[in-house]
Design a protein that fits this description.
Among the domains are: about 80 residues, RRM (RNA recognition motif) domain (Alpha-Beta Plaits), CATH 3.30.70; about 80 residues, Alpha-Beta Plaits. It is built from six helices and ten strands. The strands form three sheets. A four-stranded antiparallel sheet has the order 2-3-1-4. A four-stranded antiparallel sheet has the order 6-7-5-10, with helices on one face. It binds one DNA strand through strand 1, strand 3, strand 5, strand 6 and strand 7.
DNA sequence: TTTGAGCGG
């Protein structure tokens, strides 16, 4: 006589967050407009973009999805990172479910432990759909978590490179408030420095919380240099930023860096 | 919390 219901594998136990799959409504995915962080001028462009995307609610068309052999050299998969251990395929699927454009989801797991490696792949029905979702969700908050989506083209797998734009110049940004996301950080700089290629707020893998610092990448070296002095002490969200130089984590052998 | 890390089958 063994109580059968006592067998709940710890590693697969329910997330600490609640049962995301039982959410009655699907629009908890509605994108969160960034809070009151300061984006000087280009705010309107950004909001315009967001609204455009909200208006054209894509509809899933199964016929179109399968009937289009298309130029199959197009990437339809996105890489998704910063996943917490409880973020499994159903969860991720749910994140994009209402778009009706997800073809498949895969979380990469450790062969031995079965634990998530913290990243995965989301395949969409088309390149356009993938791009749309990338634009829409990257940087917005993931449901039932305190961290934003981290999405990118799944470029390595297909051997295709996403636009490689040459060298990049990175700065370190510290003193970030807890609510600062990649996107906020990026836009804060991009408003003044158009060559900004991206920004990353470093988060704790376990808790998903920000560590209070991040990095901003520039394509233009002079903009990087200007930003380091001009943006130091400027506010992002509720706190002034502290800017420093970014220590290179990577060094390519045989390549000289200035 | 103050110098990350992110590509499978």
């Amino acid at each position: 006589m063994q109580p059968a219901n006592s067998m709940v594998p710890q590693s697969m136990a329910a997330p600490p967050q609640q049962q995301y799959q039982q959410q009655p409504q699907q629009h908890w995915m509605a994108q969160q407009q960034p809070a009151a962080y300061q984006v000087p001028q280009q705010q309107s462009a950004y909001y315009y973009q967001q609204q455009q995307q909200q208006q054209q609610q894509p509809q899933y068309n199964a016929a179109a999805a399968s009937a289009q052999p298309t130029s199959s050299d197009e990437i339809r998969s996105l890489w998704i990172g910063d996943l917490q251990f409880w973020m499994d395929e159903p969860y991720i699927q749910n994140c994009f479910a209402h778009t009706g454009e997800v073809a498949s989801v895969k979380v990469i797991r450790n062969k031995q432990s079965g634990q998530s490696e913290g990243y995965g792949f989301v395949e969409f029905i088309s390149h356009a759909a993938a791009e749309r979702n990338l634009q829409t969700y990257n940087g917005s908050m993931m449901p039932n978590s305190e961290q934003p989506f981290r999405l990118n083209w799944a470029s390595l797998g297909s051997g295709e490179k996403r636009s490689d734009n040459g060298p990049e110049y990175t700065i370190f940004v510290g003193d970030l408030a807890a609510d600062v996301t990649d996107y906020m950080l990026q836009e804060t700089f991009r408003a003044n420095y158009p060559s900004v290629k991206g920004a990353k707020v470093v988060t704790d893998r376990v808790t998903g919380r920000t560590k209070g610092y991040g990095f901003v990448k520039f394509a233009d070296e002079s903009e990087q240099l200007h930003a380091m002095t001009e943006m130091n002490g400027k506010f992002c969200s509720t706190r002034p930023m502290r800017i420093g130089h970014a220590a290179n984590k990577k060094s390519v052998p045989g390549q000289v860096q200035g």
